[in-house]
Amino acid sequence: MAVTESRAEEAHEGILRRQSARESSARTYARALPIVPVRARGLTIEGADGRRYLDCLSGAGTLALGHNHPVVLQAIRQVLDSGAPLTVLDLATPVKDAFVTELFRTLPPGLADRARVQFCGPAGTDAVEAALKLVRAATGRSGLLAFTGAYHGMTAGALAVSGGAREVRAVRLPYPQDYRCPFGVGGPRGAELAARWTESLLDDPKSGVPLPAGMILEPVQGEGGVLPAPDDWLRRMRRITADRGVPLIADEVQTGVGRTGAFWAVDHSGITPDVMVLSKAIGGSLPLAVLVYRDDLDVWEPGAHAGTFRGNQLAMAAGTATLAYVREHGLAERAGRLGARMLARLRSDIGGSACVGEVRGRGLMIGVEMVEPGAEEVARGQGDALGPEAGPGGGDFAAHGPYPPPPGPQAARVPRPAAPELAEAVRRECLRRGLIVELGGRHGAVVRLLPPLTISDEQATAVLDRLTDAVATVARDHETCGPPGPRRGGTAPCRG
Q1: C-alpha span between 437 and 450 (Å, rounded)
Q2: 14-18, 210-214, 249-253, 419-423: lowest mean pLDDT where?
Q3: Domain span at residue 192?
Q4: Which of 222, 265, 336, 434 could form a disulfide with 254 if both were Cys (CB 3.0 to 4.6 A apart)?
């Protein structure tokens, strides 16, 4: 047994060494997760060294049903055994017809009856590029509205509307959030200010912002730090764009197929976007990306957008099986219920830690923002800049979507400095405990959970046990960790 384990460890280390020597310096996950997966099922991955892990990365949200779900494997085998072609460019096939039929069955009301679908290629960023081309062609305009903190892919066009773009090619709008509200207020007031800012830019003839070709947004910012948009704010964005003839593009690449507690994250607010960008889970673990949009935007000439690998039959079959399974088994609704319980426990167990700024999320998109402990966190008055209609009980944002109401009409938490080194330490401690998590957020300081929708209650408990223990360990080891107070003045251990 010892010899077998030694050989497995040697093989594991050898593969990692060769990867480091031969692969690009651009590799990311491999640097933080020195794992060599050889088997996987559901939530569990087994490495070449024999270690087992609970996978809460799920292929960056791709694996709605977890690894190697039986219905996905069966769908793939049926195509392989049938003798059907595996790739067909954009030709019609029974496999594609079944996929589109199932996809349209799930679309938001008001879109399915007049939708068109464009198969774009293997990745979500390809669908984003197609969406930008589409709205520019349909409107004859070139400008775009995007949001701070956004992430839409790695191609040039997608990066231009993402938060980290070096060259600003789109107008950046404030994305509402509580803990790090750009207006310093958070809650309904912060969302109201963000909406008013958007209206002012579009309606002020001296703003320098001409009417754009489209607005692109994520209903929950994933890479931006797990920031759920308030439902009323999304409805406001829908009204603002509709009233001005600006197509609204919803990027549901990571939020789609039940992850947030609704089949599509826009369903929470009841809005119908003009364009939806879809990838990740829709391929059932295989590469697939599509664009779904209103038929009146379909102004493209033949060949206006193409791609060699848009006819991936295995991905369409796996995607059909995944979409149907999520729909028939109510996995979106379960994700909402389970995610709420997981958030409640995390807030109870680690929310009071001086190393944790905020626990937030929607459904099974969960984030824990790590911050520098010791810096004083207080409530501050915000005045009546928005007038009485913006307070509790009135205005467009009286019901604030997934967020709890702020502690008072004029109070907000002053955020402490982000602590990416603590987040990295939590990820390492999680890995030591057999739990795979991801980091995100503005400073890489948000520990993210993206478990498959098939995670059991028992597995969810195990995930939370390992995460809270990892946070508690990092908190104890950090020299300034203690309850909120003057820097380096706290002595009590963080709760965990």
Answers
A1: 8
A2: 14-18
A3: 72-330
A4: 222
Q: Are residues 138 and 225 in the same domain?
A: yes
**Domain count of the fold of the chain:** 2
More confident residue, 15 or 70: 70
- Helices 94-106 and 313-328, interaxial angle, to 10°? 30
Contact 221, 175 (CB under 8 A): yes
The two three-digit tokens of residue 417, written as one number:
């400095």
Evaluate whether 469 touches 88 at the Cβ level (below 8 Å): no
What's the pLDDT at 159? 59
Pair 54, 80 in one domain: no
Is residue 401 situated within a structural domain? Answer: no
Asked whether residue 356 falls in the same domain as residue 306, the answer is no
Residue 384 lies in a domain: no
Distance CA 496, CA 45 (A): 26
Q: What is the pLDDT of residues 171-200, one digit of tens each?
A: 899 999 999 999 999 999 999 999 999 999
Assess whether 338 and 325 both reside in one domain: no
Whether the pLDDT of residue 1 is over 80: the answer is: no
Q: Please choose, from the candidates 128, 480, 496, 68, the residue with its C-alpha nearest in 3D space to the C-alpha of residue 279.
A: 128
* pTM summary value: 0.87
Q: Taking each helix axis as running N to C, give the angle between helix 187-203 and helix 231-243, from 0 to 180 degrees, rounded to the nearest 10.
A: 10
* CATH number of the domain where residue 11 is located: 3.90.1150.10
Residue 479 — very low, low, confident or very high, per pLDDT cuts 50/70/90? low
* Tokens 């070096």 sit on residue: 166
Residues 363 and 429 in one domain: yes
Q: Are strands 227-228 and 220-221 parallel, antiparallel or unpaired?
A: antiparallel
Distance, C-alpha 291 to centroid of its chain? 18
CATH of the domain at 85: 3.40.640.10
DSSP state of 67: B
137 and 237 belong to one structural domain:
yes
pLDDT tens-digit series, residues 20-68: 889 898 888 888 888 999 999 999 999 999 999 999 999 999 999 999 9
Q: Identify the three-state secondary structure at position 199.
A: helix
**Residue 408 resides in a domain:** no
Residue-level pLDDT at 125: 86
Do 369 and 494 lie in a common domain?
yes
Least confident of 327-336, 390-399, 406-415, 474-483: 390-399
How many residues can be counted in the chain? 496
For residues 166 and 280, membership in a common domain is answered with: yes
Residues 274, 290: Cα–Cα separation, whole Å: 14
Mean pLDDT of 450-461: 98
